Predict the structure.
Amino acid sequence: MVLIQRKIDEFPHEIGLFLGYPPEDVLGFITNKAEKYKCSGIWKVYGDEKKATKTFEMYRKCTDTYFHHYSNGISIERLAVAV
């Protein structure tokens, strides 16, 4: 268990940048040690709360749409799109 906890503590939070999280939120997360955030959803928000909330809603709608189609028999291969 100690080994697992150690690995979690060493996780590079900067990975949020590669996942598309706003830089101010990644920096805020690191600086504030995951505390004192304005709101949370997919990530913890330290910057533009309004913009993040809109993004969370867009992601929720997308997830719901894909879940609906998958539940109705559309394959993962057909649902996958290249960006």
